[in-house]
Amino acid sequence: MPTDPAVEDRVLATIDELAPELIDAVQRAVRIASIEPKYPGQSYDDLVGRESEVAQLVSAVHAESGAEAELFAIEPGRDNAVARLRGTGGGRSLVFNGHIDVVPPGNPDAWTTDDPFAGDHRDGRIWGRGSSDMKAGVLAQAYAAVALQRAGVRLQGDLCLAAVVGEEVGDHQSGTTATIERGYIGDVVVIAEPTAPPAPLSIVPVTPGLLWFTLDFVGKAAHSGFRGETVHPTIYGSELGVNAIDKGFIVYQALNALEADWAQTKRHPLFPNGKFGLLPGVIHGSPYGIDVPFSLAETLRIEYCVMFHPGDDCASTKAEIERCIERASETDSWLREHPPVVTWMLEWEPYVLDSDHPVLPLLERAHERAVSGTSLEGPATRHGFAGVCDATWYEQKGIPSVVYGPGDLRLAHAANESVSVEETIAACKTFALLAMDWCGVAEG
Ligand SMILES: [Zn+2]
């Protein structure tokens, strides 16, 4: 049954009153530099504990909503903030999920501020690492629950809140999966990752899959003065030396061709054409133990991040990539004898919600109501997510999810990250309206 419009108006007015508190909480959360301690290149011991500080901040907001709030950790110092707002009974249950770890700030010279964790509020935005991805979303969810309480609304179904660690490295065993196993589950989940582009607050029912792999090539050392003779097999060829970098580029070109093929063949209505690809994001080749080009390179490592079509899975995509590498290696006499070693580092299955799932029309309606009268006014947009997220781990436990939240993924993981205040408040309103429609509102 649709929610009484008078009750909706009361909740929306309460969120307008709570907005300064919500924005202040986002600023305070951004100022805690909760960099994912397992992120590559980071010092775990230096960073562990900061996620718990954010969890405490979020948990205090959870408690304000009247929910049964708790902190719990799989690894010491890495608390998840979870809560259950018990319904009066008879309604559908809902989970709000978001992550509280962030990626490192990256190149400090690329930031226009001295401190990437300043959490400034200017030009209608909150600035800092983790603002878009995704402390604004986590707190918009928490304040939606507070608004329901302040407006005197009791839900019929349970509403669970889960602010989790570990998302940025797929460490769901410490974060989302741990909260599921602790009983914070529901009939559907809304994950507040930043869902622009293409439009602010897009509704995301699908994500690609992700793979990370390394390719290790070997060469054969020789004096750099023999470059010409070794590169032309008619003189010495590989009898004298082999430059691993040249061999790696044979496979690099084959993987580029596979990517070009995907742009033609791997199409999806909710993603731009050419979306799915193989990114060679790290490359390192050199003579043994030295970074000077006075000898042929004896080793080469290339690391790839693959985003693949949601209709495929990790196993079939890995097989396709391995076949491509094998076929390229067959074309070269050295690579036939010394094929590159492929090491799979991370596997993240795609996530797909049925396009006729009943949460989608309710979320669209809630969004349109929440943005009416703002610069975001208009119908909701459905789109695929540029990255992966914790929806995968809910799906693996049989729980459907949808992704919707303030912020822009183009700003996430980049310098000068920020989030729109207007979007954050609108998202909070959408979350509250959806909770009422989905869980039902108790009489009286
Ligand atoms: Zn994120």
Structure description:
The protein is of the alpha+beta class and 444 residues long. It folds into 2 domains: 5-207 and 350-439, Zn peptidases (Aminopeptidase, 3-Layer(aba) Sandwich), CATH 3.40.630; 209-348, 2-Layer Sandwich (Alpha-Beta Plaits), CATH 3.30.70. Helices cover 35% and strands 18% of the residues. It contains 12 helices and 15 strands. A 6-stranded mixed β-sheet has the order 1-2-6-3-7-14. A 4-stranded antiparallel β-sheet has the order 10-11-9-12, covered by helices on one side. Helix 1 (5-30) crosses helix 4 (131-150), helix 3 (50-64) runs parallel beside helix 4 and helix 7 crosses helix 8. It is elongated and about 90 Å long. The model has no long low-confidence stretch (mean pLDDT 96). The structure holds zinc ion. Zinc ion (ZN) binds at residues 99, 133-134, 167, 193.
Give a quick summary of the entry:
The chain is of the alpha+beta class and 444 residues long. The chain has 12 helices and 15 strands.
Summarize the topology.
Blueprint: H1 5-30, H2 44-47, H3 50-64, E1 68-73, E2 79-85, E3 94-99, E4 121-122, E5 125-127, H4 131-150, E6 159-164, H5 176-181, E7 188-191, E8 206-207, E9 209-218, H6 227-231, H7 244-265, E10 277-286, E11 299-308, H8 314-330, H9 333-337, E12 341-348, E13 351-352, H10 359-371, H11 391-395, E14 401-403, E15 418-420, H12 421-439
Parallel strand pairs: 3-6, 3-7, 7-14
Antiparallel strand pairs: 1-2, 2-6, 4-5, 5-15, 8-13, 9-11, 9-12, 10-11
Helix pairs in contact: 1-4, 1-12, 3-4, 4-12, 7-8, 10-12
